[in-house]
């Protein structure tokens, strides 16, 4: 870090040393005759594919190229040159704060990152001082790049690595927590049977047992999420998987209330190759979410159809070949657009007691089956989840 800081500072200084310019124009050293055409440095800076903002010691904008304007979410304006940077950059206070500190900091940030509040973009930046021939700081330059896309791509990579490491740790912790939790539940149960004559103790112990059970569900979800999936693939009839999932989701009876569930899965549907336990988990989680969203009343419909790969030009097209599409729709409150983008992220939840792992697990299992999952608004209100899984062995279609 330190050494690259010094490299950056040296790089800014070195051309000046060679050319020994007039002391008054330190920012634009005169190139040796015939070597570098007039205006080259200026053009170079303005055409850099990174954002550049430079300020003078007295706090005025000296350079601000188009990329800088674009990344900072501002409209380009040549008249900004010479104006106080605090005014020009007033809409991006995160940036003006960095620039304001440039003359005070002993170590200037190099390859630091910042999320701009205004646009949500992530920039990677380096701050350097502009020094004159005598080594006095006469200005500062912020050099930055929009990392949003890079970040999105790399973040997935990094996240995978991080999750692998974190996953091991989380799995170990979850494993350790599982036993004491089970202990608490069992012991509370024993006490509850012994203290039959105290209604207060009965209700407290019932709460303890309930909370322990809930914590256990979260631990199980964390384990399911972090554990690498090893599919035990076999030919399975989707109808069976869905029936089992309904039984499992039903066991959260308090959630289900009066919600009606309609299933339209043709028994004659082609078998799919998959892991029955994992697939069951998908529908258990989707059903549980639907029940939780509806607060005890409404309708959930599960339908499955076989789709011929060639005929399908819809959003599921990248699952090649014949597929089975299963939709789980509810007429609950629906998912607001700003929430929709995040529902598959691990730990994202809108519920006070939620783990936020249900849909992350669903996605993980769907991915492991080379399938895909889409979510949308149900016409007439509510939510539709659509799971598309490939039918892998066409020779078994009618077998
Ligand atoms: N059928 C649904 N209707 C409305 N919102 C839903 C539905 N399914 C999921 N959600 C939203 O997605 C979020 C994430 O779901 P999930 O990953 O299962 O975590 P959790 O259920 O623990 O909150 C929920 O908190 C909820 O806001
Ligand atoms: Mg859930």
Describe this structure in words.
The chain has 399 residues and is an alpha+beta fold. The protein has three domains: 41-146, Beta-Lactamase (2-Layer Sandwich); 150-226, Helix Hairpins (Orthogonal Bundle), CATH 1.10.287; 234-398, Histidine kinase-like ATPase, C-terminal domain (Heat Shock Protein 90). The protein is 43% helix and 19% strand. It has helices at residues 2-19, 40-47, 66-71, 85-88, 93-100, 148-194, 199-226, 238-250, 253-256, 276-294, 337-340, 358-368; strands at 51-56, 61-64, 112-115, 122-131, 137-146, 234-236, 260-264, 272-274, 299-307, 323-330, 372-377, 383-390. A five-stranded antiparallel sheet has the order 2-1-5-4-3, sandwiched between helices. A hairpin with a 6-residue loop joins β3 and β4. The longest helix is centred in the middle third of the chain and has 47 residues, at 148-194. The radius of gyration is 30 Å and the shape is elongated. Mean pLDDT is 84; it is low at 1-19, 311-317 and 394-399. Bound molecules: adenosine-5'-diphosphate (ADP) and magnesium ion (MG).
Key descriptive features of the protein:
disordered N terminus, binds magnesium ion, Beta-Lactamase, 12 helices, 12 strands, 3 domains, Helix Hairpins, single chain, 5-stranded mixed β-sheet, binds adenosine-5'-diphosphate, 5-stranded antiparallel β-sheet, disordered C terminus, 399 residues, alpha+beta, Heat Shock Protein 90, elongated
CATH topology of the largest domain: Heat Shock Protein 90
The strands making up the biggest β-sheet line up spatially as 2-1-5-4-3
Query: Low-confidence spans: pLDDT under 50, at least 5 residues?
Result: 1-19, 311-317, 394-399
**What top-tier CATH class of the largest domain fits best?**
Alpha Beta
Shape: elongated
Tally of structural domains = 3
CATH homologous superfamily heading of the largest domain:
Histidine kinase-like ATPase, C-terminal domain
Q: For the terminal residues, how far apart are their CA atoms? A: 65 Å
Number of helices: 12
Mean pLDDT: 84
CATH architecture of the largest domain: 2-Layer Sandwich
Number of strands: 12
**Strand percentage:** 15-25%
Q: Supply Rg.
A: 30 Å
Give a short account of the largest sheet: 5 strands, antiparallel
Distinct bound molecules: adenosine-5'-diphosphate, magnesium ion
Residue share in helix = 40-55%
